[in-house]
Specification:
mainly beta, four-stranded parallel beta sheet, 33 strands, 8% helix, disordered N terminus
């Protein structure tokens, strides 16, 4: 039952929300459903209250946009919660509002429209200079998006968002786009964000993209995309501070998690790093990409990243650093531990020649700093090559530390197991034996252990509240 404290809001509810009241006549549909969230909401509605039809054929773009427009007026009065009940809800792009929860119920699927007219064209991101696809400077708005928001929750009890990406993948492969494909979920310049307990399938491009955000939790997410489709990254924190990604399972044709912060001269000018990032309890399958990639767009800088308790199966590499001359900025203070890997092309992979650039305006003298990179307590089976570590001429990657790593090779491994150029660091208890640029080190006759921070980043201490439908 909607309860409005102020007279104006009461009148607004009477005339503009007549169907919301009807939800209270069917409490059994939602009784007993509880979920963790940053904040609970005073007001509750269902997409059917706004004309939504869950038949998988009727467009619900107007229904979602109308719902968000009306519910946004409740942000200052305890916030609003919109429930997507069981059914298939076809929709184009829509924007969220502050102090808002989108709850996707078990048995519900939000289906992304394949009608381009339902996807507005928006400006490129300022730290990228233009879109990532095609030759144009615009991009399709993401399926679920929002800008300058506070306190937003996208969650469910294992409901689904299906991006129906095949349409977009086919056109991209045929080079029929001059605009960047839409992402599934993208929030910009926002804070206090939670995305949790839902399944994401077949995004046209990246699945989750918080960019220029603070205080972000991505938790208990399942992402599934074909392993042969490029750019279907799982989770891409981009120029974000204080982010927690935990308990996620990802199958992807690209990086399961890609940490970014802008591209070449645009990212350098924008100057917003990704920092204070914790990734833990990740399971990843990605035969053509990394479990966690740092870059290649990292021109605002990436620092203080902690990655732990990761399982990688049939994945190209574990933590891959991707950068190039022209990127500038830094990748530093990276800590990874407790990885279990099975069937890997590489265990360790660093690339200083990732020479994709937005345009010819980049500065080839803008060299990145890659330093203080720590790996420890890892096992890997059925590995083709232990490490390919290539820094940049006259700009070596330094402070690499690898300890307590046991790699078992495949039946047909590479003859050279450690290919190292323009890197410097130390190792301890690593098999097969590393390259000469990473010599064995002991401290006072004892085995050396690479560093992992003992403190927590602030978002790791956040306790979610128990909310209900």
């Amino acid at each position: 039952m909607i309860r409005l404290v102020f007279g104006i809001l009461v009148l607004f509810a009477i005339f503009c929300f007549p169907t919301i009241e009807s939800r209270s006549h069917h409490p059994s549909v939602y009784s007993g459903i509880e979920f963790p969230a940053l904040n609970c909401r005073k007001h509750k509605a269902v997409i059917t209250d706004f004309g939504g039809v869950g038949d998988g054929k009727t467009s619900n773009t107007k229904a979602f946009r109308t719902a968000l427009s009306k519910l946004s007026d409740l942000a200052s009065d305890g916030g609003a919660q919109l429930v997507v009940p069981p059914g298939k809800w076809l929709t184009g792009s829509f924007n969220l509002t502050s102090h808002f929860t989108l709850f996707i119920q078990k048995g519900a699927t939000i289906l992304a429209s394949q009608d381009e007219s339902e996807w507005p064209v928006v400006a490129p991101l300022p730290s990228y200079g233009k879109g990532r696809d095609g030759t144009g400077t615009g991009r399709f708005n993401s399926l679920i998006s929002g800008t300058n928001l506070t306190d937003v929750v996208i969650t469910g009890n294992n409901g689904t968002i299906n991006g129906q990406g095949q349409y977009w993948w086919d056109k991209f492969k045929k080079k029929q786009f001059n605009l960047t494909r839409p992402y599934m979920i993208e929030l910009l310049f926002s804070q206090n964000i939670q995305i949790s307990n839902i399944t994401l399938v077949d995004s046209p491009s990246w699945h989750i993209h918080p960019v220029y955000c603070n205080n972000v939790i991505v938790k208990s997410i399942t992402i599934i995309a074909p392993v042969d489709v490029p750019n279907t990254d799982g989770i891409n924190p981009d120029s974000c501070t204080n982010t927690l990604i935990e308990d996620c399972d990802i199958v992807s044709g690209d990086d399961c998690i890609a940490v970014k912060s802008g591209w070449d001269e645009y990212g350098i000018k924008f100057g917003m790093p990704t920092q204070q990032l914790s990734i833990r309890r990740l399971t990843c399958i990605s035969p053509k990409s990394a479990g966690v990639a740092l870059g290649s767009e990292m021109s605002g800088g990436i620092k203080d990243v902690r990655i732990e308790d990761v399982t990688l199966i049939n994945t190209e590499s574990s933590v891959r650093i991707k950068t190039a001359a022209g990127r500038g900025a830094y990748v530093k203070d990276i800590y990874a531990r407790r990885f279990t890997m099975k069937t890997m092309k590489y265990v360790f992979w660093m690339s200083g020649n990732y020479n994709q650039h937005p345009d010819e305006g980049y500065d080839p003298k803008a060299l990145p700093e890659v330093s203080n990179i720590n790996f420890s307590d890892m096992t890997a089976e059925n590995v083709t090559m232990s490490a390919s570590l290539a820094g940049i001429d006259k700009d070596p990657f330094t402070g690499i530390c690898i300890s307590n790593v046991n790699i078992t090779l495949s039946a047909k491994p590479k003859e050279v197991q450690w290919n190292c150029t323009d890197v410097a660091g130390v190792t301890s208890r690593v098999k097969p034996e590393p390259c000469s640029l990473l010599p064995e080190k002991k401290t006072e006759g004892k085995n050396m252990d690479c560093m992992f921070p003992s403190d927590l980043i602030p978002i790791e201490s956040v306790v979610l509240k128990k909310c209900s439908l």
